[in-house]
Design a protein that fits this description.
9 strands; protein transport; 3-stranded antiparallel β-sheet; ATP hydrolysis activity; elongated; 6-stranded parallel β-sheet; membrane; vesicle-fusing ATPase
Length: 518
């Protein structure tokens, strides 16, 4: 048998990988070691790349340690080092992607297939971990899928020359036509991602629950409630507002107003959107999500798109910002008020604490810019009553007025925190008390039943005082003290306002330049 036949038999039997000798050497290894170039040449005709041997050595390594310079040169010229197929595969995949972008689809298909072959060779022969192999396999699947898409496109090119291949298929601006099934699938995927932004359960916040802010409430009623209830009022040149920006210090009720809108606008679809709903790590997907959001809003009109902290998405454009952020802003501008977009029945409601950072073009698209200021004294008085609700209390009307006057500079959220802390004061009294006394009152689990043996904290000097701690009181027998004015004042002294004067000055300046009072 000649050299050629012997080499082929060895290869077909896997002699280069499955040798029985303990050191892992093979006939192929020996040929490289001894410099039998005619054997190597025959091998290269049969297989353009050589794999690893059983002990981790390479055929190239054998030629090097054997000192056979001609064999080394022969192997290198043939790219027979198993570390090279990985680089070769990457180069081929890069070229395939370039040809794909250049729309040279036939060349791209061939390059994709060649790169897959080289990657599979790397998986088979290289010493890779499971994660490395899995990563390469997933890439191979992507390239294979893209090659199949291109083949399908080339096949249909004669029948439909205007069609675009797989990934480039997009729905049109109106969202009701698409170039093949791929565009429909992409549209459906984005709409599924955004479906979580639709508020299905109403927050149950009425206009009456919002203290003050009459100007803001009237503007929202004009934009949302009136066009639905009296559509004949808004015909011809009289059109409802399409964009309303609520701005003001933190905790003044901007998001709370949006909840009231979601509750009161019974027939409208309410989209509550944050930056996490619209920002994607994949290039180009963020602006498609913005487009899909507005497409869904038009399909489900009348609808309201509420974007809280809109400054995170639509800040001023600058040279230092990323391309992705710029593209999101551009898509917002186009969708809110661009050529070919019809936003009848769609209201965009934005909220921000720092309106001066908004891009000027975005600011213009919000036709009404309403300042939500810190609550006035009468509003704060109402808030104390609102937050206490039905909790037992000994506060009088005069006490509520006093609390309203003592909380100048406090936001609605600050007042809420004061009340919550005051509601905890009776609980703290129970924890700290060393004496309890029996009183008459309603059982907490049976409000209609009056019992005589409830226990409540008292001072050690009380005639009926019994020395005991809260740990000794049975759970159903405890009657907590009512909230009193002293509790409110104690909580007020420990809770400071969260808004500083510098921020208020900036907001007042912005209101003078661009906004209106709410």
């Amino acid at each position: 048998m000649g050299h050629s036949e012997a080499v082929k038999v060895l290869l077909l039997r896997g002699a280069d990988r499955d040798a029985d000798r303990q050191d892992g050497s093979t006939a192929l290894f020996k040929a490289a070691f001894k410099g039998h170039n005619h054997v190597i040449e025959e091998l290269l005709k049969f297989s353009p790349t050589l794999g690893l041997l059983k002990n981790g050595s390479t055929v190239l390594h054998a030629a090097v340690i054997g000192g056979n310079l001609k064999t080394v040169r022969l192997l290198l010229e043939a790219n027979a080092d198993p570390t090279l197929p990985n680089k070769k595969a990457i180069d081929l995949a890069t070229k395939a992607s370039q040809e794909d972008k250049a729309k040279n689809y036939k060349e791209a298909i061939q390059l994709y297939e060649n790169s897959i072959e080289h990657f599979l060779h790397v998986i088979k022969y290289d010493k890779l971990g499971d994660k490395g192999k899995q990563s390469i396999r997933s890439k191979c699947e992507e390239y294979l899928e893209r090659a199949e898409q291109l083949k399908e496109y080339l096949k249909k090119e004669v029948e439909a020359p205007r069609a675009k291949p797989g990934k480039e298929s997009q729905s049109d601006d109106k969202g009701n036509e698409s170039d093949g099934g791929e565009g429909d699938q992409e549209k459906k995927k984005f709409q599924n991602q955004l479906s979580g932004a639709i508020v299905m359960e109403k927050p149950n916040v009425k206009w009456s629950d919002v203290a003050g802010l009459e100007g803001a409430k009237e503007a929202l009623k004009e934009a949302v409630i009136l066009p639905i209830k009296f559509p004949h009022l808004f015909t011809g040149k009289r059109t409802p507002w399409r964009g309303i920006l609520l701005f003001g210090p933190p905790g003044t009720g901007k998001s709370y107003l949006a909840k009231a809108v979601a509750t009161e606008a019974n027939n409208s679809t309410f989209f509550s959107v944050s930056s996490s709903d619209l920002v994607s790590k994949w290039l180009g997907e963020s602006e498609k999500l913005v487009k899909s959001l507005f497409t869904m809003a038009r399909e489900h009109k009348p609808s309201i798109i509420f974007i809280d902290e809109i400054d995170s998405l639509c800040g001023s454009r600058s040279e230092n910002e990323s391309e992705a952020a710029r593209r999101i802003k551009t898509e917002f501008l186009v969708q809110m008020q661009g050529v070919g977009t019809n936003n009848d029945g769609v209201l965009v409601l934005g909220a921000t604490n720092i309106p001066w950072t908004l891009d000027s073009a975005i600011r213009r698209r919000f036709e009404k810019r309403i300042y939500i200021p810190l609550p006035e004294e009468h509003a704060r008085t109402f808030m104390f009553k609102l937050h206490l609700g039905s909790t037992p209390t000994s506060l009088t009307e005069a006490d509520f007025v006093t609390l309203g006057s003592k909380t100048a500079g406090y936001s609605g959220a600050d007042v809420s925190i004061v009340v919550r802390d005051a509601l905890m004061q009776p609980v703290r009294k129970v924890q700290m008390s060393t004496h309890f006394k029996k009183v008459r009152g309603s059982s907490w689990n049976k409000p209609d039943t009056v019992v005589e043996d409830l226990l409540t904290p008292c001072s050690p000097g009380d005639p009926n005082a019994m020395e005991m701690t809260w740990m000794d009181v049975p759970g159903e027998k405890l009657l907590e003290p009512v909230v009193c004015m002293a509790d409110m004042l104690r909580s007020l002294s420990s809770t400071k306002p969260t808004v500083n004067e510098q921020d208020l000055d900036k907001l007042r300046k912005f209101t003078e330049d661009f906004g209106q009072e709410g």
